[in-house]
Amino acid sequence: MLTRDDVELTIPNSIMGNAKVINESGGPHPKYRIRVPVGAAYGSDVEQVRQLLTSIAEQDSLICSDPAPRVRFRALGGSSLDFELLCWVDEPGLRGQAIDRLLTAIYNGFNREGIEIPYSKQDLYIKETPPLERPE
Description:
It is built from three helices and three strands; from the N terminus they run αβαββα. By secondary structure, it is of the alpha+beta class. The protein has a domain of about 80 residues: Alpha-Beta Plaits. A three-stranded antiparallel sheet has the order 1-3-2, with helices on one face. A hairpin with a 4-residue loop joins strand 2 and strand 3. Helix 2 crosses helix 3. The protein is extended and about 80 Å long. The mean pLDDT is about 90. InterPro entries: MS_channel_C (IPR049278), MscS-like_channel (IPR052702), MscS_channel_C_sf (IPR011066). One of its GO terms (cellular component) is membrane. It comes from endosymbiont of Ridgeia piscesae.
């Protein structure tokens, strides 16, 4: 088996016989799926995020129109609303370039639309502080 990085792998029959094998070049669509996880801040308009992500994918010339790109709201994460943009490209070699273009457009689109991209935050609460000692 040859990886996308042109590294040859040998997989023993004992592993192949007991493993789940995913054939990404088979199935009803002779195309290659891309999954782009995207986080939006709590308080974001879910429909606005969904429409923006769909629009970005539809406007990119590397992304196939059939099957159409779609967005799934996957989880209420620890610090974000977790979405996943699902779309397809014609060739596996286009995946990296397509993801780069999509992420750039998503970042710019979120900034333009005022949608916050969250990051892990921590609040520190100090229950009690020792009294301040002043020199005499």
